[in-house]
Amino acid sequence: MLAIQACQPEATSVTRSRRVLWVLAATWVLGAFDLNYTLGEARNPMFFESNPFAVHVIGSEAQATIYKAGMIGGATLILLCLRRHFLAEMAAWAGMAVHVLVGIRWAQYFAEVGGLQQGDWVLWAYATVGHGAGA
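Given the sequence above, the corresponding structure tokens read:
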């Protein structure tokens, strides 16, 4: 009887697994928005990619998609395998937090770009590229 009880997962383990699955799903949704915005803005000559790894694949939509899906996909596979562990849950939350921060940065970027007049593009490009700031 003890052996059967030892093999059953704890209620918190099942609850944690569900939370990790939901957090990973939300991360994929946020990642899809990030990819969509990145691909949309990559056509803009004033766009500056601040991710030092993604800057090398930004020229090709296929490469950018594979890169972003691969990064999230690799983390997802690892966290799915470890989803019953506390540290895996914390890592999933941290990954989602990073994507939320990226979303906030996109909102700031679009607020800056949306408020610019036609003549302001030169000043904005200088401030963005010249000082290393950007989306």
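Helices lie at 2-7, 11-42, 61-81, 86-114, 120-130. Try to locate this feature in the token string yourself.
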